[in-house]
Amino acid sequence: MSPTQMPVTSSMAASGPGHGVAVTLSDLRRSYGPIHALDGLTLNIEPGEFVALLGPSGCGKTTALRVLAGLEDADSGRVEVGGKDITAVPTSARDMGMVFQAYSLFPHMTARQNVEFGLQLRRIPAARRRARVSDMLDLVELSDQAERYAHQMSGGQQQRVALARALAIEPQVLLLDEPLSALDAKVRVQLRDEIRRIQLEVGTTTLFVTHDQEEALAVADRVGVMRAGNLEQLASPQDLYARPATPFVADFVGLTNRLRATVEGDHAILLGTSVPLLPGSTRHGEALVLIRPESIAVTADPAGRATVVLASFLVSPGRLHALP
């Protein structure tokens, strides 16, 4: 039986938490003429882990996902899933579910038919297909939209259908390529939380590509910051933010104030005060220090030597109010 004909069970239990597979990308290189989209990228994803690749346009994050999916061939390197080398395996036999920025639903099919499509290709018996589709629509909370066509649903609902379709075949790996960027801000936040809830419930190893740092930090187990075809740092959201490994990561993730300082040992002297430095920082001399805004406390100067020239009101994402 070929990988594209593997039966799909109607129960979610077979793919619950802990049933994911490991993914390894080893020394991947991919060039487009003089442009090195991937320049020796190595990435290890643990079974059932949700990893987000984050970085500026052209850093190689989408190319990495497409090479993993088999949509592009690497010039060199190795792709392994579940301990098996799939570098030369065609896309159709890689057993991966994909959700893209464009919803890519079949317009002539209802939500139910879209979710069922992959199961039909795998020749799953009709009764099992119906049960699986029902499970998936329940999972994305769209059972009441089952008979609607794409044009009858909102963008967020269409993307939920696309997610259900990707998960219906019980893929080894779920690939999400900027799946939320076409949605408005409020729906994007709601759907990113739903994606994380569903991924935790299903337990599928997931690679999520985004240019939105808030999305990456909010949903991923680990976030990889890419630059010029390689990883600058791969860490938990908390470590990435609090302990950036390179100046690029510190500057790219979150907001920073760039200030000139004099370094003495493990502290920097600036603006009449001393601040501790992260491990790996320069140990002496003049330096450029990056400081998070929330690490700064503003106090009144009795001498009145400071003047506020501009103030803007910004809502802090951490200030939440519970409604009855």
Structure explained in plain terms:
The protein is 26% helix and 27% strand. By secondary structure, the chain is of the alpha/beta class. The chain folds into two domains: 3-242, P-loop containing nucleotide triphosphate hydrolases (Rossmann fold); 255-295. Helix 5 links the parallel strand 7 (173-177) and strand 8 (205-210). Residues 1-18 have low confidence and may be disordered.
Q: Helical element count?
A: 8
Span between termini: 55 Å
Do you know the CATH architecture of the largest domain? 3-Layer(aba) Sandwich
Task: State the share of residues found in helices, binned by percent.
Answer: 25-40%
The secondary-structure element order is EEEHEEEHHHEHEHEEHHEEEE
Q: Can you tell me the residue ranges where pLDDT is under 50 for at least 5 consecutive residues?
A: 1-18
In short:
The chain has 324 residues and is an alpha/beta fold. Helices cover 26% and strands 27% of the residues.
